[in-house]
Design a protein that fits this description.
Layout lengths: L22 H4 E8 L7 E8 L1 E10 L6 H10 L6 E7 L4 H6 L23 H13 L3 E8 L14 E4 L3 H18 L8 E4 L11 H9 L2 E8 L4 H15 L18 H12 L13 E3 L12 E6 L10 E8 L7 E2 L2 E6 L3 E11 L4 E10 L2
Parallel strand pairs: 3-4, 3-5, 5-8, 6-7
Antiparallel strand pairs: 1-2, 2-4, 6-8, 9-10, 10-13, 11-12, 11-14, 14-15
Helix pairs in contact: 2-7, 5-7
Protein name: PKD domain-containing protein
Cofactor: Zn(2+)
GO molecular function: hydrolase activity, acting on ester bonds; metal ion binding
Length: about 375
């Protein structure tokens, strides 16, 4: 019998640190409406972790016909984070979304209403900007779609691109996210993600939300565009993977861990012996498995389905990880290596997978999940 199943894991960290423990133990959530009582009314979602950290704002739906952007933002609003604050406004332009059009009923393009150094030009834009200025984000991400693919010239289309604010940190983060989503989810080289800098303040188009967040508030700011032709689920997956990757490092992670480590006693003894000759404060690395796509902490799997397991969230507090080793199935041998692997659930039942990471001191950390099918 072919059936679906849930992913069983004691320590799986999903999108932006979805933890095994309940939300109540890790974050607090609140929401409020802006433009309440009007056709433009929309909801702002705020998730605050117990641990201090940076603030991120994610918005979607500035254009009502760009469905993947506001669908992805809606899912991101439910993410659990390890540190800091996540503010999400999934449906910024409720009127345009209701109409299924780029602009509102008066022909206003919401993403042209945010002139830099000036007050936003419509009541809705001002209400949105008030939220952003109140939370003063360290990172700002705006999700969009395009009918054409970006190839260095925006006149041909801007899809499959991550545009970024000035500075090495934003540039590097955009490049990392573009490479990651391409390697994890894209087989067609023509759909590989590219990056590009924001246009200058004097160049058209002007009044973009992401530009204002970067230049008026100093946020590391990103405008992510997918091409609108593939299936909606694929486009949403691309968006959520990009956002999740941009949250890597210190942002909304802050060195926190939701993974459970289980060290081998013999390996622990060896680590203690090694540390006698050097730094006695050596810390074991933190292994962490992430199931791709990143937007779900659960997956319905069928026999024969292939999934990707990603170890890039693993961290070493006092050095770097030099090796990723995987034990797939009931064997005790770590035969596969690499930061990511693909696993095919080829039969009904439970399929354990264990990750072991090794750092530059020879210390190890492990994480385990169980993939189940036909249950």
């Amino acid at each position: 019998m072919t059936g679906s199943c849930a992913l069983a894991s004691a320590s799986l960290a999903g999108a932006a640190g979805v933890a095994a423990q309940s939300d109540e133990e890790t974050v607090s959530r609140e929401s409020f409406a802006i433009r309440k009582g009007t056709a433009e009314e929309t909801t702002v979602y705020v998730t605050t972790a117990d641990a201090d950290g940076p603030t991120a704002v994610v918005v979607g739906g500035l254009h009502g016909n760009e469905v993947a952007g506001y669908t992805a933002a809606d899912r991101i609003a439910d993410w659990t984070i390890d540190a800091g604050t996540l503010v999400t406004i999934p449906e910024t332009n409720a009127v345009a979304i209701e109409r299924g059009t780029r602009n509102d009923e008066n022909g206003n393009n919401l993403n042209r209403q945010f002139p830099e150094g000036m007050k936003p030009q419509t009541e809705l834009a001002r209400a949105l900007w008030n939220v952003v200025t109140e939370y003063d984000p360290d990172i700002f991400i705006d999700l969009h779609e395009s009918t054409g693919v970006y190839a260095g010239d925006t006149s041909d289309g801007v899809g499959q691109a991550i545009f970024h604010s000035d500075g090495a940190a934003a540039t590097d983060a955009a490049a990392d996210a573009a490479d990651y989503v391409t390697q994890a989810h894209i087989d067609d080289p023509d759909l590989a993600f590219q990056i590009g800098p924001f246009s200058s303040p004097s160049a058209d188009p002007k009044g973009l939300f992401a530009h204002k967040a970067a230049r008026d508030l100093g946020a590391e700011s990103f405008l992510a565009e997918t091409v609108s032709k593939p299936a909606l689920g694929t486009r949403v997956q691309w968006h959520t993977t990009v956002v999740d990757r941009l949250f890597q490092g210190e942002l909304l992670r802050n060195g926190a861990s939701t993974s459970t480590q289980e060290a081998d006693p013999d390996e622990s003894a060896e680590e203690s012996t090694d540390s006698d000759a050097g730094d006695s404060s050596t810390t074991s690395p933190n292994a962490q498995i992430q199931l791709l796509p990143t937007w779900s902490s659960e997956s319905t799997l069928d026999p024969g389905q292939t999934v990707t397991l990603d170890a890039s969230r693993s961290r070493d507090p006092d050095g770097e990880i030099v090796r990723y080793e995987w034990c797939v199935g009931d064997s005790d041998s770590f035969e596969e290596t690499g930061e990511t692997i693909e696993v095919t659930v080829d039969s009904n039942g439970e399929h354990p997978v264990e990750l072991r990471v090794v750092d530059d001191d020879g210390s190890t950390g492990t994480d385990r999940i169980t993939l189940s099918a036909g249950c």
